Amino acid sequence: MGSRMGGPEGTGRRPWSEGPEDVEADVAAELHAHFRGTVDLLVERGWTEEEARAEAQRRFGDVDRWRHVLENMARRRRSRRQAHRALEALTAAFLSAARSLRRSPGLSAAVVVTLSLGIGANAAVFRVVDRLLLSPPEHIERPSEVRRLHQTFSSEDGVPYTLPGFTHPDVSAIRAAGFPARFAAAVPGRHQTLGEGRGSVRVRVARADSAYLPLLGVDAALGRAFTADDHLPDAAPVALLGHALWSSRFGSDPGVLGRTLRLGGGRVEVVGVLPAGFVGAEPPAVDVWLPLEATARTVWGDDWVDMQNILAFHVLARLRAGEGEAALATDAREVLARSRSDGYALRGELLSVGTSSLVPGDGPNPLAIVFVSRWLAGVAILVLLVACANVANLFLAQGERARRETAVRLALGAARGRIAGELLARALLLALLGAAGALALATWGGNVLDELFLAGMELGARPRNGRLLLFLTVAAVGAATTSGLLPAMRTSRADLRRGLEGEGRGATGGGRLRRTLVGVQTALSALLLVGALLFVLSLRAALRLDLGFDHQRLLMVRLEAGEEEAEREEDAAVLYRAAEHALLGTPGVASVTSTVAIPFWSLYGLSARLPGEDSVPDGREVTVNAVGERYFATMGVPVLRGRGIERDDLVEGAAPVVVVSPSAASRLWPEEDALGKCLLVGRGATACARVVGIAAEHAGTSFSLESHSAAAASMAWVPLPVAGRTSPSALIVRAEGEASAATGAVRRTALDVPGVRYAEVEPLATFVDQRTRSWRLGATVFSLFGVLALGVAAVGLYSVLAYDVARRRREIGIRMALGARRGRVMGRVLGAALMTVAAGLTVALPLAAWGAGRMGSLLFDVSPREPTVFALAAGLLLLTGALAAAMPAWRATRVDPREALAEG
Question: What are the two backbone dihedrals, phi and then psi, of residue 819, each rounded to the nearest 5 degrees?
Fold first, then answer.
């Protein structure tokens, strides 16, 4: 078309724009030229002007349509040209960057290693944070629409507390209200034994109502899901297997369908296998699913539907279009407040109903590990910022060395934007290489962090690698921009005249900037070191705490009876007595006792009161445990006065006795001798339990952050019959050496006892370690990342000082020629290093004090502003700065004045 119309001179048509000019104007000019040319041609053939214009209009037809078509064609052509030119420029920039890497392999290697460490640390942390704080469970249809419900009550002391569970009447009332959302309920997984004999295993079993799987959009991958008939109260017992259990236990055999398996105290028929990856809507992962309505009676009895003292049901809601979370929570609270009886008020006033997502770390009562993980994410970002500051310093140093080359290129006409683009391309190329190295570090480090943070949480399948690769790419681009933008801008804005004069002048500003970056690295490292030291002190305080018993030598043994022995508590009592007798003769076992409560694992909620009182007054409560003979000897708890629980106390008809701790004695009978006093143990008790002994305090179930202790407020111990128990919950075994060494022998002995189907044997140290886990993790991860950041900062300081010494060789030579002593020269270099570190500390320490204050809830028996911690962190950084400066300072003293002057 353009060739027919001729040039723009004769038509007023503009040439096609190649930049961001107005496409509409270009098309209008083209159409005008084409129309005018047609009119002129017709006039030449003898048409009048009016006839020619009318004919041209007829031939053109719908001008607006053709204008629209041509505008789209022009835009596409311009976009293709711009994309082509951008690709050419990007390719040229990357080729130039690749050539520059070959010219400076040492710098390239240092940058790649530094970024590999920084990006790899973040990628490893991302794997944990992604699974714990970002990703909902797999195989759930539109998980963002599903919410967990929880309720908050007022307590007697005015501090609200939140519970995730509801009663079955609560669930029924919510459903009857007819909300726009669909509701479902499930009872979280509990361990039960699957199989028989020595081949049996412990699996986690959950019960779901008829709406649960449909609400989540989950169907069976093999066989069928539950039907309506499966949920009927008198339905035949059926089960769905989790895919992981089906693969590991049954070898992915489709023949498992229709098989009858022994599960707990009964038998179930397998009717289906759920999809791979589906482990439930919330952790821990479930292995076997049972229909709730058909199995609840065997757990809670015939009247379970109306029981208001069982908050075992976790409620899910799927939001529908236009429904908000706040409205759902408000409506649910109103329904529950109306439906509950007066007896429910014993838990306190219902303040609110809340919602949370299906992300594992979300919820009303997050574990301490969730808070540590959030801090860990921040720590990893600080490490990456330290690495980026170090890389920026290296780029700045190289830019100053190549200042003359850059000035020559500018003098020859190179565009400043092109130079900056090449520098950014080099930074991006190095960052991508660093990300490739970070992938290996993230895989190894991620596995380590998974074991540290997620062990025991049973979150199901590991995360997809696609999310990790996406994160690595984003992190690489971010690191390249952060570390390369400032050097690129500074290099591209270099003064042409000064650059051509030589490298020795005008470098003062660059030195200040590089020292500022080192100060930033120092400040960030100080933040990490303060956090690491606080967690280390917390862990040390927790480990040094006197628990009152030697948990390193104790084992918990819990037995599961066979089908015939599982019906009555009396039979279970016989089983435990037989196991206790057998274990007493096992090599490596020093003592055995029985107990209902297990330290750091479970409490026993037996009530106690004084004669003439309905209950123990507030502030004088005691925690009661029912135990067997040899309890105090086995636990290693000394009896301070009187005696402990003896065999005669366990005989039916024996006079009830009780042993109390000193704190219980002082609370119950202040300023009186507790021995011989009376305590009524158990609801409705009339027989007086006489205090026959006072035993030393020992730990309850957790570490108290408020009191900085692990001991129960007050304890009392009674024989099993006094508590109305014939069977204990567990046996406590005291090993002659380390508990872990005796675990195998204890388990084999317990399984050999006739009637024992399964024996769970765990060292008590495992339960204690779980309570100290957050401090252990905080100490480990903060220390690891703190040392990493400290090392990177030290390398950065070393590189700055080494470059300064090399650049100032002539100046140093002149000073030494004029009589400067070597010690003074070394002192100036060391002083510059320590001043840089000190400048970073002046900013870091106040920030660290602020951040430590926000960590207070995660610390144990340590003030978040402990002066020793800040002094030690500052000392470590100053020492690191001195060590990093030692080699450049020594090199400065070895400068030969004659050689330096000759070089100048």
Answer: 110, 5
> Both tokens of residue 703?
């570490």
- In angstroms, the CA 825 to CA 890 distance is 9
Longest Cα pair distance anywhere in the chain, in angstroms?
136
Q: Is 581 exposed, middle or buried (0-12, 13-18, 19+ CB in 10 A)?
A: exposed
Q: Which amino acid is at 731?
A: L
Q: Please state, in angstroms and rounded to a whole number, the distance separating the CA atoms of residues 513 and 73.
A: 50
Give the C-alpha separation, 870 to 852, whole Å: 10
- Answer yes or no: are the C-beta atoms of 404 and 81 closer than 8 Å: no
Q: Which amino acid is at 482?
A: T
Q: How far is the C-alpha of 676 from the C-alpha of 306, rounded, in Å? A: 44
The per-residue pLDDT for range 177-186, each reduced to its tens digit, is 877 778 888 8
Torsion of CA 646, 647, 652, 658, to 10 degrees: 10
Mean pLDDT of 365-387: 77
User: In angstroms, rounded to a whole number, what is the distance separating the alpha carbons of residues 664 and 674?
Assistant: 9
What is the DSSP-derived secondary structure letter of residue 462? P
- What percent of the chain has pLDDT above 70? 76
Q: How many whole angstroms separate alpha carbon 112 and alpha carbon 387?
A: 10
Give the angle 717-721-727 at the CA atoms, nearest 5°.
95
Q: How far is CA 125 from CA 132, 375, 628, in A?
A: 11, 11, 47
Tens of pLDDT, residue by residue over 395-414, are 776 666 656 555 555 565 55
Please provide the size of the chain in residues. 904
Among the listed residues 86, 77, 84, the one whose alpha carbon sits nearest the alpha carbon of residue 26 = 77
Q: H helices then E strands: how many in the chain?
A: 26, 24
Cβ count within 10 A of residue 568 = 12
Across the chain, mean pLDDT equals: 77
Is 297 in a helix, a strand, or coil?
helix
Cα gap 11→32, rounded to integer Å: 8
Q: What is the chain's Cα-based Rg?
A: 38
The pLDDT of residue 702 is: 53
- Give Cα 418 to chain centroid, integer Å: 42
239-274 pLDDT, tens digit each: 999 998 999 889 899 999 999 988 877 889 999 999
Secondary structure string (H, E, C) spanning 668-723: HCCCCCCCCCEEEECCCCCCCEEEEEEECCCEEEEEECCCCEEECCCEEEEEHHHH
Return the SS3 of 898: helix
pLDDT digits (tens, 9 = 90+) for 455-473: 655 565 555 667 778 888 8
| Exposure string for 352-366, b = 16+ CB within 10 A, e = fewer | ebbbbbbbbbbbbeb
At 5, is the pLDDT very low, low, confident or very high (cuts 50, 70, 90)? Answer: very low
- Sign of the four-CA dihedral 877, 880, 886, 889: negative
Angle formed at CA 803 by CA 801 and CA 805, multiple of 5 degrees: 70
Interval 99-143: pLDDT, tens: 666 667 777 777 788 888 888 888 888 877 777 777 788 888 888
Residue at token pair 């030692």: 886
Instruction: Work out the angle at residue 699's Cα, subtended by the Cα atoms of residues 696 and 701, and round it to the nearest 5 degrees.
Output: 150
Q: In whole angstroms, what is the distance from residue 501 CA to residue 404 CA?
A: 8
d(CA 831, CA 835): 6
Higher pLDDT, 584 or 524: 584
Q: What is the pLDDT of residue 121?
A: 81
Would you say residue 419 has pLDDT above 60?
Answer: yes
Spatial separation of the C-alpha atoms in residues 522 and 517, rounded to whole Å = 9
Structure-token pair, residue 486: 């400032």
Determine the straight-line distance between the first and last CA of the chain, rounded to whole angstroms. 67
Q: Which residue has the tokens 């821990």?
A: 284
Cβ atoms 522, 837 nearer than 8 A: yes
Are 273 and 302 in contact by the 8 Å Cβ rule? The answer is: no
